[in-house]
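Researcher: Checking consistency across runs. Here is Delta-aminolevulinic acid dehydratase again:
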Amino acid sequence: MDLNRRPRRLRSSQNIRELVRETNLSAADFVKPLFVVNGENIREEISSMPDNYHLSLDQLQKEVERLLDLGIKAIILFGLPKYKDAEGSSAWQQNGIVQKAVRRLKKEFPELLIITDLCLCQYTDHGHCGILEDGKIKNDATLSRLAKIALSHAEAGADMIAPSDMMDGRVAKIRQTLDENGFKEIGIMAYSAKYHSSFYGPFRDAAHSAPGQGDRSSYQMDAANSDEALREIELDVKEGADIIMVKPALSYLDIIQKASDNFNLPLAAYNVSGEYAMVKAAAEKGWIDEKSVALEILTSIKRAGADIIITYWADSAVQWLNE
């Protein structure tokens, strides 16, 4: 044993540990997901996602003000529409809930970075992320609808569009549509490696987006595959993505690391609803400490290589870090 090599010297006090810490979290790392609904004075807690809410426009404005005061400068916005139909037409209406929310938030908080999730699942009556015909998702028919949604979000004032549908070619179609309509400065955060995961349950409850028939395994990625993730990301990069994303995060840290090692673009990771809800449930039982477990999870996501963490703990994490 070489007693001249004593790694514990650098762990002997809090000050030393902080000085040599390799991975640090800050408010600048986080994006907070928010769910906006029609109506007034609505702040309804989502039962499967404690401390997260369905918010009407007036309450959304108050929530954003609170987040900015904490130092959180970016949100990703999900909308719950007034009506649904087979093609999800409420998703691209100028008076749609997301479009109204973006216009209001940009007027009140021009410094806020607004990312809009782009998908059809909340807006279709069948709950799938694309056009459904004879029980199958029609990839190419879906692309034009996604482009219409992207354009409507850009026209409302969104800073970045985040397509989450996993249709082939959607980044290229969205980029082309934005560019042709004078929105070359609007970025695309692509859900590039989005897996067919069991961790999405609470989100589907929050967004009212569970598929009415079948599942999403024909377009979301197989959880057993990692090389495929690199192929998917490479395609999105070639098609014009500005930021790439891995979703979920906690069970896919290896994918985050591979993406970080192989692509020189900003990398986002989505710490999804099931990951959040499991910790919340265990903490409520008194089995674990939510603060320490949540911060450990978020640190592991950043340590794996994520530059951006989309998380329902964003506001809590900042408060904990400031204690």
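Researcher: Does this match what you'd expect to see?
Model: One thing to look at in this run: The mean pLDDT is 94.
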